[in-house]
Amino acid sequence: MTKGIKLINVDFFPETFSPAVLYISEEYKVAGHLCACGCGSQVITPLGPAEWCFTEVEGKPSLEPSIGNWQLPCKSHYWITAGRIEWSYGWTEKQIKQGELVEEEQRQLYYAKREKRTKWYFVLQRVFQWFFPR
Questions:
Q1: Which residues contact 116 (CB under 8 A, 6 or more apart)?
Q2: Which of the two ends of the chain, N or C, has the fewest CB atoms closer than 10 A to its terminal CB?
Q3: What separation, in Å, do the N-terminal and C-terminal C-alpha atoms of the chain show?
Q4: What is the count of structural domains for the chain?
Q5: What band does 1 get if pLDDT is binned at 50, 70 and 90?
Q6: Among candidates 16, 13, 26, 34, which has minimal Cα distance to 80?
Q7: In 10 A of CB 66, how many CB atoms?
């Protein structure tokens, strides 16, 4: 079963979330919505290369990867794709732990690569300044 979700762009989240609404603050790189299962829990997803990716086509939002609310009692698991909630299968505790480890490894790898690029940038900047002093 799929259910629709509409997009509202905000600077700041409202005090109370409305059902079936995905709030996006592109300035603060964060998305928020009420859990799709109807439990009423707020779900906050950071946006960025090492987190969730937000796209919008014709006003219809998508978030990748899936939303796995493992920390909530409902443990719901779904995708937000082109303005629709698409339910996924539930995960076992073992799958949840393994998924968390994979996510953390990917995050660490992203930041390690970024740090390495940053170090090279400063080295190249110093070489450039040596050849072209002001």
A1: none
A2: C
A3: 64
A4: 2
A5: very low
A6: 34
A7: 15
Q: What is the pTM of this model?
A: 0.75
Helix (H, G, I), strand (E, B) or coil at 2: strand
Residue 107 shares a structural domain with residue 134: yes
pLDDT of residue 91: 83
**Domain check: are 85 and 117 in the same one?**
no
Residue 18: DSSP 8-state: P
Nearest residue to 44 (alpha-carbon basis) of 18, 69, 8: 69
Same-domain check for residues 4 and 46: yes
Is residue 86 located within the same domain as residue 125? Answer: no
What residue numbers bound the domain in which 86 lies? 1-90
- Who contacts 40 (Cβ-Cβ below 8 Å, separation ≥6)? 34
| 79, pLDDT greater than 90 | yes
Which tokens in the block code for residue 7? 């997009």
Counting every residue written for the chain, the total comes to 134
> Domain boundary residue among 58, 74, 90?
90
Cis bond upstream, residue 19 (ω within 30): no
Residue 54 CB partners (closer than 8 Å, separation 6+)? 24, 26, 31, 47, 61, 62, 63
